[in-house]
Write a structure and sequence with these properties.
The chain is mostly helical. The protein is built from eleven helices and no strands. Helix 5 packs antiparallel against helix 8 and helix 8 runs parallel beside helix 11. The longest helix is centred in the first third of the chain and has 34 residues. It is globular, with a radius of gyration of 22 Å.
């Protein structure tokens, strides 16, 4: 509805392609506001369930029937599915509505189709900073199967939402009370990632292959630009500073954190049941 109002009365040749109206793209104006809403959406589906069950006493009944390990593992699985679906369903519906509402013009938000620089932006030759991977991720998929490209990123965004939901649930296993505090960790984490990203951008070296850098004589030595905001890794046309080493380290840290929290909660609950 937002885009129907924005595009009303415009010439057809100036329309973006239908896929570009999808609000889950980092290029879309509404994406900025969604980044502030995202930490709340992740917590709402199921991440607060453990604290709720402890407060009303139902956790003891469930554990007595299921066992401690099965109780916590099932909560992690259900939390992941709930946090996954709260993003997957509405964003997929949004993409489908965009496909049936707007025309396919091949125009992108960053450039009209066929103009100078369109290819350079996709391949990264017009990008000014030194990065590990200069072209947009999954470029061949975008060029040959754009629908699958967007569906892939809807899945990745939903996957990250599910992972963040599990992280918040595991965090709740540590604090044991105070639901309001569950809304802070993810928000602060994303803000911290943005600060690190901006710092890396300011101190990064220039892309030696960029004609823009050469023509303006603005080339400078420096380290690679690394995007630390994980949200940029799961949206179409995210930041070019996506780094596989950083992503691998982030995955390992997340897994280790969730495992430690789960083991801690299982042991603490078993000691509680034994009266220790």
């Amino acid at each position: 509805m937002y885009e129907v109002g924005e595009q009303a009365g415009k010439d057809l040749v100036s329309y973006w392609d239908a896929s570009q109206f999808y609000c889950g793209s980092s290029l879309h104006p509404l994406w900025y506001y969604f980044t502030f809403l995202f930490p709340i959406l992740v917590v709402l589906p199921y991440a607060t369930s453990y604290l709720t069950e402890r407060a009303n006493g139902s956790s003891i009944l469930l554990i007595s029937k299921m066992g401690v390990k099965q109780y916590f593992l099932s909560k992690i699985v259900v939390c992941f599915i709930g946090s996954f679906l709260i993003i997957m369903i509405p964003f997929l519906i949004n993409y489908i509505f965009c496909q049936v509402t707007f025309p396919h013009t091949n125009n992108a938000m960053f450039a009209y189709y066929g103009v100078e620089g369109y290819d350079g932006i996709l391949t990264g030759t017009y990008y000014g900073l030194r990065v590990q991977n200069i072209e947009i991720p999954f470029l061949k998929l975008y060029l040959n199967h754009p629908t699958l490209y967007y569906i892939l990123y809807i899945f990745l965004l939903s996957l990250l939402s599910g992972i963040f939901g599990v992280i918040i649930l595991c965090f709740s296993l540590l604090i044991r009370k105070g639901k309001i505090f569950l809304f802070l960790p993810l928000f602060l984490l994303l803000r911290g990632m943005n600060v690190l990203t901006r710092y890396s951008e300011m101190h990064a070296g220039s892309n030696p292959l960029s004609p823009l850098t050469i023509e303006s004589a603005m080339y400078k030595e420096g380290p690679e630009y690394i995007c630390y905001n994980l949200l940029e890794y799961v949206v179409p046309f995210g930041e070019r500073g996506q780094n596989t080493i950083y992503l691998s380290i982030a995955i390992v840290v997340i897994v280790v954190f969730c495992v430690i929290c789960t083991i801690f909660a299982i042991k603490k609950e078993m000691h509680h049941l034994q009266g220790e």
